[in-house]
Amino acid sequence: MESVLCAKNLKKSFTTPAGTIEVLRDVNLAVAAGESVSVRGESGAGKTTLLQILGGLDTPDSGELFWNGERITKRGNAFLAKARTKLIGYVFQFFHLVPELTALENVLLAARIAGTPMHQARAQAKELLARVGLAERMTHLPTKLSGGECQRVAIARALINRPPLILADEPTGNLDERTGEAIMQLIIDVCREQNTALLLVTHNLDFAARTDRRLVLRHGVLEEI
Amino acid sequence: MPWSIYLALKQLFPPGKRFPAFALVSIIGVAIGVCSLLVVQTVMNGFSQEHRENIQRMYGHEIVRSVDYRPVKNYKPLMEQLRAVPGVAACSPFAEGQVMVKNGNVPALPFVRGIHLELEDKVVPVKKLIIAGSLEELDDDRVILGDRLAHTLGIRALGQKIEVYSPTMVDELKDDQVPLPAELEVCGIFRSGYVPADENTMIVSLRRMQDLYNLGSGVHGIRIRLDDPEKAIELLPEISRALPKGLEALPWMYVNFNFLEAIRFEKSMLFFLMFIITLVASFSIASTLFSAVVKRSREIGILGALGGRPRQILVIFASQGLFVGLIGFVLGCGLTFLIVAFRNNIVEGINKLFGSGEMVAQMYMFREIPVHYNGNDFLIAAIFTLATTTVAGLIPAIWASRKKPAEAMREA
Ligand SMILES: Nc1ncnc2c1ncn2[C@@H]1O[C@H](COP(=O)(O)OP(=O)(O)OP(=O)(O)O)[C@@H](O)[C@H]1O
Ligand SMILES: [Mg+2]
Predict the structure, then answer these.
(1) CA angle B296, B297, B299 (to 5 degrees)
(2) Is residue A220 one of the residues assigned to a domain?
(3) Inter-chain contacts counted by CB atoms under 8 A, chains A and B
């Protein structure tokens, strides 16, 4: 089966006044459709950087990246943005909701950006918010929601376009243990329901154990364990 | 509604915030700029419009007179010929000049217009200007005075008599004759609204003026009304063709030409000044919007991560500038109408504060501040405002949309 995401020999380094940091030395990765993969690594190992490059938010220094078999290295911002709406849902550690929009509008936003007509998007968004347990809080602004609720909104937002791949960067890193547990279970369950592939960055061994495949990013290289 | 526009509106007027400071301050800034621009332009237009109307009201649209100011003899066939020129609506002979008048011991040196009793009103609207008495009562022994002139002379009621001395009486004095002043009865008062005319003009019959100036059957010229006053210069060649040698036609625009030009020049200068004021306002909007964009750097990254294209992100911020411009412009127009409507009260208030009573009338020769709305001024102000505020939003937006989402998210 073809992989939704495929990376070959990715390299990335940052140049700072203090010197050059080689974050990714040689990353190779393939994520099959519907598969869940976890990535662990020490703080500063380059997990966020890796996820950003895989999601097309940043460009690698060298190496190649394929989305659904299409080579996307060196494509322009506009192309990447458009391709992203069809392929990838992002979940961030700090939720990153748009503060001026309500829970429902935040979810709708992703659908509208992808070009879904309003009536259709609204129905889907309501359904998804109900699925993540926020049926009663749709009209609330992010400032009126708890951290766990915000992350539920972010998950609904990542899922609304039914992307074949979810990239999640420590989605529970900012939540207490019990809420984190619930959120993580939600992500894994929903991805399984929708047959969505999941690339999950986490520190938590428990969570990592629930994924199909477990990787560690160490010295700029991904190792299977 | 496109999502980028929706988001722009939400960012401009954040829900749950009763006082969207950024939006309000920027909008008020634009409104004040637009308002000052438009008020100044409207008043300047008013001055020039009022002045043009005054000239036409007093002068007609065109006059024919001899090049060397000598009396025109035998004017009746000439009138026939002028009337035949297409575009000429009416004409009337006139004689005019300076005289001295006395009411008891009070003297004045007014300008006299000797008018044809039937024809004059067909050329300039004399009847409409009369506020007491009537034009019909005017005959060779009667006179109509400007209201301020009547006031200066101490005329309290119609029917009072004044003595009139003409320059030709000086010649009689030289010949050792004793000139007798003409005694004329005041039968009307007029008010044109143009202060110099009201202060210094009286109207008599043509025959009386021919008498006073020893013109015999001659006149000083012929006043013409055209179908379209704006064609006064255009029709000049046709009219000139109807004239015998030694006579010339002068369109109304040539009267006080310098004054009209000065007003036009003043208007452009003021526009330029106001333009700079509005430009400064735009820069302040640009800087506020710029800091707003920087503050939203992470959000820009998120929108990118959600698949928002650079152009759409551009639209979000550029349209915020456009909205500020649009609302500010509408508000500025409203403010303009308000100030213009209450301009006389405002000036009155200022006069009361500084205690200068008839300032406007004395300085500007009009009884109230004249205004004239010109659609073009509004159009130019609109285009200019919207363009600058949009660009003000666009520049930081371009900067923001160029960045990779990862970069944008790291900042903030
Ligand atoms: N734009 C940048 N410029 C310079 N250095 C950077 C930049 N982005 C990341 N780095 C460096 O790259 C390394 C990897 O950063 P990254 O955020 O990917 O780590 P991480 O594995 O996500 O860490 P954490 O678990 O703490 O989130 C760090 O040493 C960081 O300082
Ligand atoms: Mg990280």
Answers:
(1) 65
(2) yes
(3) 76
